[in-house]
Write a structure and sequence with these properties.
This protein has five helices and seven strands. It has 205 residues and is of the alpha/beta class.
Length: 205
């Protein structure tokens, strides 16, 4: 089986902060660098070697890939145009298969929506589930081959903030149905505001 590590770039400068900055030029923020650097060190301690690292040409992805390569003490990072956000995942996997012949493990650093589409394509997502691929996450999926794999296995994903290793795929938690209100709660909600006891005034400090 070939190990594929899907890596969504870290937190980048927001358009609201720099409206004049083209989307293709947005770098990681200091917070994004710091958080992903910690995650990359956690990943390195797992002891899972990566044969090739490929990244989108956009700065925020390149910087993320460089941080990962540094943590793994690996200098070679390849740039693939097919890792741009709008590139179809099938075309990406075909290019990776050509560029990484013989590799048993590959890291792909890119963007949404492509990263989520790759999880959908390779991860055997449960019916009705929603993928929640957060910035700075790493998802490992094993495949029998890079193009049209017959066997796939979603192994784990690393949470970007807590750095917790979780089994399977990054799926959004289902919304729990709200329990119907009890009779006394309905009466309290309907009670006029002026009929409720006034809140005690806090002493001035």
């Amino acid at each position: 089986m070939i190990r594929i590590y899907l890596v969504r770039h870290g937190i980048a400068v927001d358009h609201a902060d720099k409206a004049d900055l083209p989307d293709d030029s947005r770098p990681l923020t200091e917070k994004g660098r710091r958080r992903f650097r910690r995650l990359a060190r956690t990943f390195a301690r797992l002891g899972e070697p990566i044969d090739r690292i490929f990244t989108s040409p956009l700065p925020r992805a390149v910087q993320t890939a460089e941080i990962l390569a540094s943590a793994l003490r690996q200098g070679d990072v390849g740039i693939l145009e097919s890792l741009r956000p709008s590139a179809p995942p099938e075309a990406l996997l075909q290019e990776v298969a050509k560029k990484a012949k013989g590799a048993q493990s590959v890291a792909l650093v890119g963007h949404n929506p492509q990263m989520t589409l790759l999880v959908e394509l390779l991860g055997d997502v449960p019916r009705g589930a929603t993928i929640d691929f957060k910035k700075g996450s790493i998802v490992r999926i094993d495949v029998s081959e890079l193009t049209a794999p017959k066997e796939t296995e979603a192994v784990f994903w690393l949470k970007p903030k807590s750095r917790v290793l979780a089994k399977g795929l990054p799926l959004a938690k289902p919304h729990e149905p709200r329990m119907p209100a009890k009779p006394h709660e309905l009466r309290a909600a309907a009670k006029p505001a002026d009929a409720r006891p006034a809140a005690k005034k806090a002493p001035e400090k």
